[in-house]
Specification:
alpha/beta, Serine Threonine Protein Phosphatase 5, Tetratricopeptide repeat, Alpha-Beta Plaits, Rossmann fold, 4 domains, 6-stranded mixed sheet, 4-stranded antiparallel sheet, 17% strand, globular
Length: 556
């Protein structure tokens, strides 16, 4: 985002840059949404990026015109953090944070300062993602940064941004060669595409409506699997304890902390600034990690979980679930006393909300597919709690990073249990005990979620080849833990096949949540067929009311 040569970044300039970038995103929002790899009707990368930038516009609109550049950059970083929506929005917030760190410390915005800002933004964004994958918006950002570093320092900002934007489009175009799932779906990466749209719009003061690349590709795109750098499956840690905490102090050095904690485990993440960092590491000696950290500052939000600990039988937990909470049969009201812990759950569908409330969850945030809440939305819910500890259930894979952004931003002890579906969230809520401390609730919830297989049925919005399954527009597709495994022209066939795949490990209980688009007669027929096919499986049917997904399933 370039300003005139030799000029400091001012509030009026920031307003113009953001407005132009927002306009470009708004014009192509649906196009970006449609690039979603999975052919589901709720692809929302474009929406999340646009809403994140809108939060920046709202924030800068409230600032005085004569605010100092350093204070402006700090305000933009905070606004991006609070307004980030979805994974793409969270990554964008980290990009902005890194860039603002440079702009806030350097003088006039020159080509060399812009190059430094891209470099810092890239480092910050990569650090924020636990397992960075190439072929995504991270790759596009990195290759734009590399292009910026090759521009002569005496070039003007405009010349610099022309080179950067051209490199960005080139990077977006080749994302399918780096990520097999993009090539199979026949699309470029939506996040990377949206990032270049935003930066180009801000740099030029408008969008370039002549799209310079083909966003959709002929299938098959490539013949040789060797061309793909696929995302590695996440391996189970060899260490026992998942340890995380907030470290506050002065002059904290993230690189030094990474070097300090690196030899003690794996899955290390150090995110923050010189005054406060969030540390996450898998280790066999959390005591040593905490001891080393406490010598460098003040520790808060300490969380230690035994990743290999076995939990009590699921059926026993279910039997005592409601009784342990003082909830009357058929009541949707939680117990009155606040206890030690309260839960914030992100939920779509009035029926699903009622189910969470019946399990004692009294802080509900509207959201889920196609309407991801911001960090600020979650913080407001956390602040409404009266208990010391708060558990956040994101209930959507695209909300987890946003939930994690809230850690350390309130005065309460907050734990995020990374539930990726409403079904998983309900299983976590079953073991919730408001009279137990937050860390104990978080431990039990994580253990409960491990045993849940989540499935969902929706209709494809376009032809696609994804997860080795050929999908046609209008097909009913079944997903297990966010991967497409079934495609059928008939919803009954899709539900039957999906259920068969979900019950391969001898699960004894199946929960069915019906969506807003499924009428009572249709739901009754689907369930009757399931009961006939699986007479030994206990089937519990509830009216969830969630949009886009006529059927959600959970096998335990």
């Amino acid at each position: 985002m370039a300003t005139s040569d030799g000029m400091l970044l001012t509030v009026p300039q920031a307003r113009r840059l953001l407005a132009a970038g927002f306009q470009a995103l708004e014009e192509r929002k649906q196009e970006i949404n449609d690039l979603n790899v999975y052919p589901v009707p709720d692809g929302d990368t474009g929406t999340n990026l646009t809403l994140t930038v809108k939060s920046l516009i709202d924030a800068v609109g409230r600032l005085p015109d004569d605010l100092a550049p350093g204070d402006l950059c700090a305000a933009l970083s905070q606004a991006a953090l609070m307004g980030a929506r979805g994974n793409s929005g969270v990554i964008l917030s980290q990009i902005i944070r890194g860039a603002m760190d440079t702009f806030g410390q350097r003088a006039p915005v020159s080509a060399s300062v812009l190059a430094a800002a891209f470099h810092t933004a890239t480092e910050t964004a990569y650090r924020a993602v636990r397992k960075p994958v190439e072929g995504t918006m991270l790759t596009v950002l990195r290759e734009m940064s590399e292009a910026a570093s090759q521009v002569a320092p005496d070039s003007g900002p405009k010349a610099m941004m022309d080179v950067v934007v051209a490199a960005g489009w080139k990077s977006v175009e080749r994302t399918p060669t780096l990520l097999k799932v993009l090539a199979d779906a026949g699309v470029v990466d939506a996040g990377g595409y949206g990032l270049v749209v935003l930066i180009e719009g801000a740099a030029n003061g408008r969008g370039d409506w002549q799209i310079p690349i083909a966003t959709r590709l002929a299938q098959p795109t490539f013949a040789a699997p060797a061309l793909y750098a696929t995302e590695e499956a996440e391996e189970e840690s060899e260490f026992t304890y998942c340890t995380s905490f907030l470290l506050s102090g002065g002059g904290l050095d993230k690189d030094a902390l990474e070097a300090l904690f690196g030899p003690l485990g794996d899955s290390l993440l150090v995110v923050g600034d010189e005054s406060q960092v969030k540390v996450h590491v898998h280790t066999d000696d959390p005591g040593q990690v905490l001891s080393l950290a406490s010598a460098r500052g003040v520790l808060r939000e300490i969380e230690i979980d035994n990743m290999k600990e076995q939990t009590a039988a699921r059926r026993a937990r279910l039997a005592q679930g409601a009784a342990g909470r003082g909830v009357a049969p058929g009541s949707t009201q939680p117990a009155v006393e606040p206890g030690l812990t309260q839960v914030v759950a992100v939920v779509a569908g009035e029926g699903n909300k009622a189910l969470f409330r019946s399990l004692g969850v009294d802080l509900i945030v509207d959201g889920g597919q196609s309407m991801n809440p911001s960090a600020e939305d979650l913080i407001r819910a956390v602040e409404r709690a009266v208990a010391h500890s708060v558990i956040i259930l994101p209930n959507n894979g695209n909300v987890i990073m946003t939930a994690e952004q809230t850690l350390g931003l309130t005065g309460r002890e907050v734990h995020v249990v990374p539930t990726r579906s409403i079904q998983a969230g309900l299983s976590a809520a079953v073991v919730y005990e408001r009279r137990s401390p937050g860390y104990e609730n978080a431990r039990m919830m994580r253990a409960a979620v491990e045993h849940v297989v989540s499935g969902e049925i929706t209709q494809a919005v376009r032809d696609s080849l994804v997860d080795d399954t050929q999908v046609k527009a209008g097909d009913y597709i079944g997903l297990i833990d966010e991967h497409v495994v079934v495609a059928a022209s008939d919803i009954q066939a899709a539900v039957d096949e999906l259920t068969t795949k979900m019950l391969t490990a001898g699960q004894e209980m199946l929960t069915v949540l019906t969506g807003e688009g499924l009428d009572a007669v249709g739901a009754e027929q689907l369930v009757a067929h399931l009961r006939e096919r699986y007479p030994l499986v206990e089937i519990d049917v509830r009216e969830g009311g969630q949009p886009y997904y006529p059927v959600l399933l959970a096998a335990e």
